[in-house]
Amino acid sequence: MVEVTKTAEASEHARAIGELATEVAGLRTEIAAIRGLLTRTPCDVAEQRRRHRDERLLAVAVGETPVSLREGPLLVLHVLPEAAFLPQASPVKLERAPNFPIFRGGGDPTFNADGKIIWSGERTEGSTGYAQLGRHGCIEAVRVMGNRSSSANDKGLPVRWPEELIVDGTTEYLKTLVSLEVQGAVEVAAALVGVKGWYVCGSDWDRSAYPLRIERQVIALPPVTLELDQPEEEIPERPRPVLDALWQVGGWPRCFHFAEDGTYHRR
Question: Would you state the pLDDT for residue 163?
């Protein structure tokens, strides 16, 4: 009888130890997962930003925008704070957001499902552009740059149009994020959407008889990372890879508005 009792006790003890070991293993897995979230590497954040950009560019390309846009080729600018993609990201105070511009122009501000937006144009005819401030500080700005119904010989986009929008938008939206007390690094990325059949030209009157026409609908320019404490006068120099790539779409080797010493001079 004593031997049976001891055997039962040992079996019960072994079962309890097994259950405890299972619970400990489960807790260790949960702790490891939590630690992984809290110690994300920059690559993880970069991947999240890339996916966010890709999803938004696809949405814009198929017309899923916060306001209806007029037809025509688009410039899309994304200003994405790194802090917005961290697990502990805090929402910005939208009610404190200034009336940020659409690149450099004004419009009508209002709140919407995604945060705060400013748009321009008529609702019935479609907007010429918008700037959307998301709840965690991400900014998406879109501007219509031409008329989709233009004839084949008139589908030239002067390079200064998107260049000036990128420079002015970057400057303005970094100011917006600073006013909202957003901190850390910010990624700036631009893209041309709906541009198949169009071409980038040197000026309004420089419409080549044999242009280098764009053969796809979306061209994503390489993103750059800026710091929010970047002096305003240095901002155009930092997104140089974006501007160089923009000019290369038109067949030039680089943006010619940069001097040999790297300083930027708008002409």
Answer: 94
Please state the rounded mean pLDDT for residues 164-184. Answer: 91
Question: Does an H or E element contain 119, and which?
Answer: strand 115-122
Q: For residue 65, what are the CA distances in angstroms to 68, 112, 127, 143, 163?
A: 7, 12, 11, 12, 23
pTM of the model: 0.79
Alpha-carbon distances of 88 from 37, 39, 100, 138, 158, rounded to whole Å: 9, 11, 26, 15, 43
Give the span between the Cα atoms of 204 and 146, in whole angstroms.
12
Average pLDDT over residues 199-203: 84
Does residue 267 lie in a domain region?
no
> Are 33 and 52 part of one and the same domain?
no
The token pair at 241 is: 């890879």
- Domain co-membership, 85 together with 170: yes
Q: Is residue 259 part of a domain?
A: no
How are the residues of the chain apportioned to helix, strand and coil, as percentages rounded to the nearest 5? 40, 25, 40
Nearest residue to 245 via CA among 197, 196, 189, 186: 189
Model pLDDT for residues 54-76, shown as the tens digit of each residue = 999 999 999 999 999 999 999 99
Query: Residue 19's domain spans which residues?
Result: 1-39
Six-digit token string for 14: 């072994």
Number of C-beta neighbours around residue 109 at 10 A: 15
Tokens 């954040």 locate to 45
Q: At what angle do helices 160-179 and 240-249 cross, to 10 degrees?
A: 160
- Within this chain, do residues 125 and 176 fall inside the same structural domain, yes or no? yes
Please tell me whether residues 135 and 14 are part of one structural domain: no
Tokens 């957003």, residue located = 182
- Residue 217 and residue 133 share a domain: yes
